Amino acid sequence: MRPGKAVASFDSATGMLRALSRFLHDKDVPLLGQGPAALEPVAAALLGGAGRLPRKAKERAYAVSGWAEAVPMRRVPEIRSEELAGWVTGHYPRRPYPVAFVGSSNGALVHLAAALRAPWLPQTLLLPVRRRGVRPDDPRGDLRVTQGAGRALLDANPDLVLHHMHDANQDRLMIAGMTYFRVKWRRLAEAYRRFLEESLPPGATLVVVDCGLRWPATEVGPRHLFQHGALGGATREEYEHGGPRVAGYLARYGAGRSAWDYPEADGEHPEAEWGFQPELLGDLTELAERNRWQLVRIRFGEPEDLSPVVADLYRSWYRTRGLPGDRLLVECFLLLEPWWTLRSGSVPYWMVFNTDQSHAHAMSYLDDVDPFDEIRLILFSHGVDSVGLAGIDDWRALLARGRKLGVFTGVDTDAYPRDFAGLVRAHRELARIRTTYPMPLPLEWPVAEEFLAKREELEWHAG
After folding, report:
1. How many domains does the chain have?
2. Which of 225, 234, 364, 377 gives the lowest tally of CB atoms within 10 Å of its CB?
3. pLDDT, tens digit, for every residue of 200-246?
4. In angstroms, how far apart are the furthest CA atoms of the chain?
């Protein structure tokens, strides 16, 4: 099973990997992480056509696009973790780096790595697996139908932990015909080890990105966890017990129930998409000691904890370079454009998703910093009126905080959250920003390290 076919292109880790690796190849991201530049005209036509479909047909087209990427269940045992790791490292240019990152997926981290011109190796990847006969609101049925495939995957890959994730709130359209197998390396893959040893000279720094987010999950078997729900609009309590918002959501989609029935969680574990699997730390420590690298561990509680830190670092860096630092680019989920962020002199602020929680965090950030003259906002459309979805008027209130300009970037406000053509449109609108600057020399790691180590949002462990 070719790794490029097994890994989801619509996932956070993949989108972030592509955005950063294209930046390190001195390229922008025409489809915001979704594919090569040559496909942009085709994708624009297809997505534009889908945008004109009736709502039900549009949702169906979105679901089918994901299903087409998914791995047939019979082929899951063919997937090999070492080939996945080689596929990841194959994205990056081979050259010496003063610093490299390994660990949790994080959009703010992508911008930190871009400023340093450094690679990042994700611990987690999403393997979408096709399955039939399970409705989105039936997590028990999802586990029952796919449990054997999960066991086969783990038997073939003893270095992986499987976090089988089922989120009928945010992923409703996608999981209609597939399931989400998120895998995390608990041991360092040989391809990762080889890439790091070829890329980091003695005295370089290896940074472990450790998001401490945990989530209730069911231990299905050794190295096999089932996670119902995920970080986003609905709370943990709503996933577990339901409530008025969940009941209303399920009624809107004709689910025939008022709450979800799922396998009872028996403990908390690293969250499937964002959390760090701590077993990997031992191999990274040993590798750093053997190669005489400095090992740094950046730990934070939730993914967005890193966002204001990196935004402030960029603003400080711009002002040191004589740039105004008065443009803010608010990005969402896998919609990241590090190349145009730097070319436009924009301060990047990354949001996990399009939810009330992310909106509140972004507004809180604006409350705490000097005002921005310009604010641009990219929103990810997942196609669902999900619990906790922030409305367009909420986002307009955020944009109103720009003293001179506040604009949606690539967002059709009438189509949102079914604005699938935004993947292409956002890049085009970023490329039209009039005032641009030369691409800077890389930010020096000691400067970034000193800045980051002082921030109270982070636990900083060096040595």
Report:
1. 2
2. 364
3. 999 999 999 999 999 999 999 999 999 999 999 999 999 999 999 99
4. 61
408 three-class SS: strand
9 lies in the same domain as 89: yes
- Picking from 341, 327, 330, 328, the residue whose alpha carbon sits closest to that of residue 431 is 341
* DSSP codes joined into one string, 410-452: S--TTTTTS-TTHHHHHHHHHTT-S---PPPPPPPHHHHHHHH
Strands (E), 302-402: 327-332, 346-351, 374-377
Pick from 274, 281, 311, 304: nearest CA to 461: 281
pLDDT tens figures, 357-398: 999 999 999 999 999 999 999 999 999 999 999 999 999 999
- Residue 148's domain spans which residues? 3-94+124-201+213-272
- For residue 247, give the H/E element and its range: helix 244-252
User: Strand 214-221 vs strand 224-228: parallel, antiparallel, or unpaired?
Assistant: antiparallel
**What pTM did the predictor assign?**
0.95
SS3 349: strand
Are residue 338 and residue 401 in the same domain, yes or no?
yes
Across the range 113-126, mean pLDDT stands at: 98
